[in-house]
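Moderator note: this is an archived Q&A kept for reference. The question asked for a predicted structure of one protein chain; the sequence and the answer are reproduced below.
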Amino acid sequence: MMYSVSERKNYIKNVQLPYRHKRLFGSSHGWLAIVDKISRAITLMNPFAQAMAPIHLPHLNEDVSKVILSADPALNPNSYMVIAIYNSIHLAFLKGGQEDWNCIRLDSLHHPLTDVIFYKSQIYAVSIHGTIVSINVNMCVINSSHPPELLDVRAFMTRIRDLDQAYLVESTKGHLWHVQRCSIGVTQFDGNVLFEEGFRVYKVVFSDTDGCMVKHVEVKTIGDEALFIGKNYSVSVSASKFPGCQPNSIYYTGGSKEFVMRIFDVEFGTACAVIEGRKPRGLWITPPFKGLG
């Protein structure tokens, strides 16, 4: 089943996905990354273009947790890049048409990676405890031992408890959001503090001189933007261009046995469930159309 956020309706037919011995590990630019549980083979598939042949990537015989693309392979067959998070602190990437993965082990992170993004011709990844790493792809292809730039932002997390996930999202305005999914303390009328699931959003600040990451600044509003996070490539859209989307919000999925889609209001710090049911955990996918910004 597929659910359209803007139209607020379900679509059951016309989309066929392989599920037997398969796992979905991400989506970007309308494509899904499907990993075979047995062979570990990775296949890219566009469910909205059934006539388009799937793309079979080189085997990555490891525990893959996320796969994303830099661009639409149909429009950029020789220049798109694929990047995968595997074995917690490893990144593997390749350009379209390459037969081998380039692999990087990020030992200095000490914590599992939870998200990765292509941003301004660089790869940025974030760990579960909020450490951001940037990697110059061209430099790594030439010299795989080139050390990535690290920005440790854990010092900014003194008010955060039980951090669950961290995400990186490119804003519709062009800057980079760092989103942390965590438990946030809410003071009750009786003075007790109740910890509820929530998010904190930070804007990553870059140096004007060398372009390196400097710090991140917490924001209480993201304006007209709606962020979609999860196992997919994290996406931001202008809510005003999609009548069914709620501005200044984060859309996310959860639940271990039942599928739950929730919307988190960034300004008020509250969440509400939109869909609940006995369905597998889902991910967001962007159908092929223009005008996300």
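Archived answer notes: Confidence is low (pLDDT under 50) at residues 141-146, 152-162.
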